[in-house]
Each structure stands twice: as structure tokens, then as C-alpha cells.
Amino acid sequence: MEWKRKYTIYDQQWVSVISIFALLPSAFCLLDYKEALSKSLLYFEAQRSGKLPYNQRVSWRHHSGLTDGLEQGVDLVGGYYDAGDNVKFGLPMAFTITLLSWAVIEYGKEIAAAGEFSHALEAIKWGTDFFIKAHTRPHVLWVQLFEFGDKFRGQYDESVGAAKGYYPSLSGYKDELLWGALWLYKATDNEYYLNYVVQNAKSFGGITWAITEFSWDVKYAAIQLLVAKLPMKGGKHFEIIEEYRAKAEYYMCANLNMNKNSSNVRRTPGGLLYIRKWNNLQYVSTAVFLMTVYSDHLRSTGRVLNCDLQSVRPDEVLAFAKSQVDYILGTNPMGTSYLVGFGSKYPQRVHHRAASIVSYKREKSFIGCMQGYFTYFGCRDPNPNVVIGAVVGGPDMNDQFEDRRGNYMQSEACTYNTASLVGPFAKLYYSIQDSDITNTRQSYPEV
Predict the structure, then answer these.
(1) Which of 5, 28, 3, 27 is nearest to 16 (CA)?
(2) Contact (CB, 8 A) for 229 and 206
(3) pLDDT value at residue 312
(4) Would the N or C end of the chain have less CB density within 10 A of its end CB?
């Protein structure tokens, strides 16, 4: 599922040792992670669909999608546009909201210390309010949805064929069932869901898939990490949980270039993790999130990451995650921040319909599709509206980036790109404020 780099074992060992030492200076390159956090949460207000609230901060956006569901006799107004076009896709939207919620669970105190806790909750609520609307009657959600998915198994894009051309379920449905069961276990502490994850560990791929990417489609790496974090010392599930943990650490070691075989994640010459050319930064940002979370877990349990080539300390895992964050924020061969609005140089022609066309608040005349295409899409001028906080697809395998709207593989931003970075931004900001880049995770405040 990912590109392969073929090294000899000898080459791997030297590259891996050099890579670890290369991480250390990065800890002393401190960017404004609080600003990055603030702008990343602001981005979700630019992606809102529906009737915008009185406290909307992205002023160039206006109400949209106010008749969604009208023909079907239901109210489907609200939610988020997934990327640069005016479409709401349920699967990536759910993934985005999960990432935001997980960030608050792990780093709520850090987000609050940056003054962004209310904005994080607002970003989550805008999505969850839509999902509540999308169900036929009150409270037919949560557990009922899991029971439905387990009883009527199958890929969602087999029943919603229109989604297949945009968000096809290539990994199938089994990882989603494990994903749902795990979160229900964490929410309810009901042993049924833990038993489900354990009993289906092999048949559903939980302990058989060795994964080097985490995305809206392929969730195994995060599933394996979540199980690895369960506080189980001994007990009837110990062996299965250890197998999950081994696969979680395989993912971590692959990102660190510390596996013996050829399944390590390749990197650009500038040091960026590289999975594939279309929206590569989605895989980088999710890797950053999982590695940040796991570094905290290793530290809190007094463990190290045991890779094939060598052991890696928790602070080294975090240092690598930080190096990827810093690359995204501008410490890269292009000197470009791929977080729009951060720094002095960032993409000016983001593939984003609303950002590319003059705001309705300034120009209320009708703009048809043809006019929009020829007048705005093909225009070489910078976008009239800056979609602050968007994380675009990013550079190619040679660290090169072409700032052009038509170059959607690189210039389009997606909600899940940014959502994955909310937690790491907060973690890095808080760690620096605490004068310790390896500060341990704190619990989030009561609300």
C-alpha cells in the first residue's frame, strides 16, 4: 500500500543511526506552536457548511448549503466541507471529528493553556451536531450504530456508490468495526467491546496487518496503538494485547526507519515522510499525532520503543514527530510553510473554491460554474481569501511544491490534514512553556 525503499541491512543501519542523531538539533528549533494551534482551529470555521453563527471568525465565509436534505424531507444543514470543493462526505468528516476529539482527550490541558479549548470544542460540536441530525430519530446513534454495522457487515461505498469515486473503502470495513468497538470500550468501560476487539483480533486484521500509514481509510495503526495503551498487566487478554502492541511499534519503527526489512517509510531528501504523491501530508500529520501520543505513553510507563535496529527513547520519538511538524511549518528546502497563513511564505493559490472566488459579502452577483472556472480557477493571482490554518497536500518526493490551483494533489487542503496536528501543536507549545520538550502529558480540564 505504500512505496518501498530497498536498502541493504548495512545501509539501513547507517541511515537509521544518522537519522536519530539528526533529530537532536531539531529540539532547539522552536517555532510558534501556539500560533500554529490557533490557526489550525480557525481553519475549521472556513470549512463550515450551513447557517454560520454570530461568533464566526472567518469573515469572508457566508451561509451555504441551507437547503441540504430539503428534497428528502430531512434537515441535513451543517457539517463540514471535506476539502476544497463544496461537498460533505460522512466518512472523512467522522474521521476528522474523531481526531479532534482524541486531541482534546490527550491534550486538553495543553490546548486550554494556549487559550484554545473553547475553539476546539466548538470545532468538534459543529461536526457532531451534523451527525446527530443525520440520524432518523433522537438517540439512534452511538451503540445502535455499531450494532447495525456489525450485524449488516459490508463496505459503506457498496451502498453509497457515489462516494467510491472520492473516498473508496480500500481497506474494507473490519478496521472500522474494531475502531468503533475500541472507542465504545473507552467511553463505556463495557467489557463486551474489549472482548470484541480481542476475539476478532486475527480475523479482522488487528494483529495481522503490519501497517505503515494511518488515514481516514486505513485505521489499523491507530487501533493497534489504542490497544497497546490499555492498562493491562497480565490477565486473560495479555497475549493478544501484546500482539497489538508489537504491530503498533512496527508502525512507529517504520516511521523512524528502524525496521530491518524494506517496509520502512521512505523520506524526501529534506527528511519528510513520504507515502504517496496525492496529499502526502495527510499521512505525515497522522504519523505525527500517533508518534506524539505514543511517546507520552512510553514515558508514562517507563518504557522505550524496541525497534529491530536499536531502542529509541520516548524523547527521541517526540523529537522525530517535532521534526515533521517543523518541516510542515517551513523548516524545509522550499522554505515554505504548508500551514496556510503561518510564517512569511505559504501557498497562495490553494485549491479551494470559496477561497479562490471573491467573497459573497463583497460581490453578491451570481457566479456560474463556467465563469468560476475561467475567471477564478485559471487565474494566476493569489486567492482573494486566505484559508488560514489549512494544511495543503504538500511537496513531492523531491521536496518540490508547485503553488497552482490546478495542482490539486499538492495544493488542496483537507480537514483531516489539519485535525491531526491540533494535538501535537498543543503538546509542543505546552512543553516549551514548561521548559521541557519531553514534558509528560497532563489530563484535560473539567468542562
Answers:
(1) 5
(2) no
(3) 97
(4) C
pLDDT score at 260: 92
Residues 64-75 have a mean pLDDT of 91
* Alpha-carbon gap, residue 354 to 368, rounded angstroms: 13
User: Measured between alpha carbons, how far is residue 131 from residues 48, 125, 396 in Å?
Assistant: 14, 10, 35
Active site residues: 351
The grid coordinates listed for 146 are: 455499531
Cell triple for 202: 486475527
What domains appear along the chain, each with residue ranges and CATH number?
9-433 (1.50.10.10)
Rounded distance between C-alpha atoms, residue 228 and residue 222, angstroms: 10
What is the residue-wise DSSP string for 22-50? HHGGGGG----HHHHHHHHHHHHHHTB-B
Q: Which has the closest alpha carbon to 31: 433, 399, 429?
A: 429
Provide the 3-class DSSP secondary structure of residue 305. strand
Q: Helix, strand, or coil here: 122?
A: helix
* Angstrom distances, CA of residue 280 to CA of 253, 273, 412, 416: 19, 8, 11, 12
CA–centroid distance for 124 within its chain: 14
CA dihedral 221, 223, 224, 230 (to 10 degrees): 150
Split at pLDDT 50, 70, 90, the class of 7 is very low
Tell me how many degrees the CA angle 370-372-376 measures, rounded to the nearest 5. Answer: 130
Lowest mean pLDDT among 157-166, 198-207, 280-289: 157-166
- Integer CA distances (angstroms), 237 to 168, 197, 206, in order: 33, 10, 14
CA–CA distances in Å: residue 239 to residues 6, 223, 225, 349, 375 = 32, 16, 15, 51, 61
Report the residue count for the chain: 447
Contact assessment for residue 31 and residue 326, using Cβ atoms and an 8 Å cutoff: yes
pLDDT tens, residue by residue, 296-324: 999 999 999 999 999 999 999 999 999 99
Task: Output the pLDDT for position 412.
Answer: 97
